[in-house]
Amino acid sequence: MHLILNNFKSSKFIKLSKAEILNIVEEVLKTVEYKFTKNHQLNLSFVSSEEMKLLNKTYRNKDKPTNVLSFEMPKNFPVGDEKTLIGEIALCEEIIYEESKKYKKIFENRLKHMIIHGLLHLIGFDHVNKDEGNKMESVEKKIMKSISAGDPY
Questions:
Q1: In percent, how much of the chain has pLDDT > 90?
Q2: Distance (Å, rounded) from C-alpha 52 to C-alpha 90?
Q3: Quick one: average pLDDT of 37-61?
Q4: Between 20 and 30 A from 130 (CA), which of 19, 78, 120, 145?
């Protein structure tokens, strides 16, 4: 698995290393039995609340920032170097930080949860109805427990 992090070093709050983030990604993919190889690529972008608001308005017609957005790529989307891009996840650390305070969660654990949540969306999970939401929440809890990050809810 190849992981590209955009705007990672300019973070105010993030103390996770690239290796820790890659471990989370691989744990998600193993848990849901997603077949991945070293040729798969995932892009994670850390964006400002202004950038996230623009993305959310453009792609979801919601004129406010959000914590995480996922952008799925078509199957076998070529990236170069014979990599296959799973997709891109945009994370807004400002919103995630605010939510960690609001929900009384450790920021790093809230961030881990949003990485997991965004990746699950990329590989087909959703929460548009109660049954799907319960299934997604159950998988999120299982992964959070396996990486010792506590209950996300």
A1: 69
A2: 8
A3: 92
A4: 145
Provide the strand spans (E) within the chain: 2-6, 40-46, 68-72, 78-80, 83-91
Domains of the chain by residue range: 2-146
For 100-110, how does the pLDDT look when each residue is reduced to its tens digit (9 = 90+)? 999 999 999 99
For the domain 2-146, what is the CATH code? 3.40.390.30
Please determine, for residue 37, whether its predicted confidence score (pLDDT) is greater than 90: no
CB-neighbour burial class of residue 112 (10 A; exposed 0-12, middle 13-18, buried 19+):
buried
Measured at the CA of 79, the angle between CA 78 and CA 81, to 5 degrees, comes to 105
